[in-house]
Design a protein that fits this description.
Number of strands: 5
Radius of gyration: 20 Å
Strand content: 15-25%
Low-confidence stretches: 246-251
CATH architecture of the largest domain: 2-Layer Sandwich
Distance between the termini: 43 Å
Mean pLDDT: 84
Order of helices and strands: HHEEHHEHHHEEHHHHHH
CATH topology of the largest domain: Beta-Lactamase
Structural class: alpha+beta
Number of helices: 13
Strand order of the largest sheet: 2-1-5-4-3
CATH class of the largest domain: Alpha Beta
Length: about 250
Amino acid sequence: MMFGMSEMRKAMRLALELRDFLPATEVQSRHLIAGIGGMVGAYVTMWLEIQGVPQNPTIVRVYDQGWADDNARQYLHAYISDRADQRDPFAQEINIAARRGEVVTRGRRNLVEDKIWYRSKQLDEYRRPAGLDDCIYSIFVGRRVTRCLSIHRPWKGRRFTEDERALVHAVHAECTPLLEEAELPVLSTLNRRLRQTLDGLLRGMSEKELANELALSQHTLHGYVKTLYRRLGVSSRGELHARFDRLTTSR
């Protein structure tokens, strides 16, 4: 299967479509994985956002699609919750390849030989029961969050080609700056207090600490936090950091 200009135009069009959605929200992430999964004929496509890489990684968001059933889906989510990636030969190799501030995209066969892959404990315990085999991982390591796009083929299904890996890389690489650019208009809609609240939360301050710094009651500050979350379309501190991982360091 060869990709030409038509397929690359589809990739760029998908990246541009993301401008139509509020940045770093579920609808935007799901549009991304549905689009790229369809382009390369994926069985399962996943989008993960991880904080604390590499010392203390914590997954803050996971969106996925394509599972045959919930029973298959639970195996890969068990893989995530069991932190089996720390013992997975492919995950170890892609983490070594990843470089901060750059999108790195690798197919499984680029990093792990068949004889290692098909003898690995992680494949037998998680991937095979989930019906997953060949895969492509594309990672962007930001200052506060790592974004991982993973594309999977069914067990013993057709393997991904180098052209398909290149297409996944093109989409992820194009989406990364678009997501960051899309944050800028959101900031301009925030008043002074909401900007101060945002800045304090992104500096890692607790609500009590931030209330003291701004000479506000904790009740008032908590109201600002709720308003900020609603305006930005997030529901947790982790999602807030995921949205602004690079923006706060470039202002």
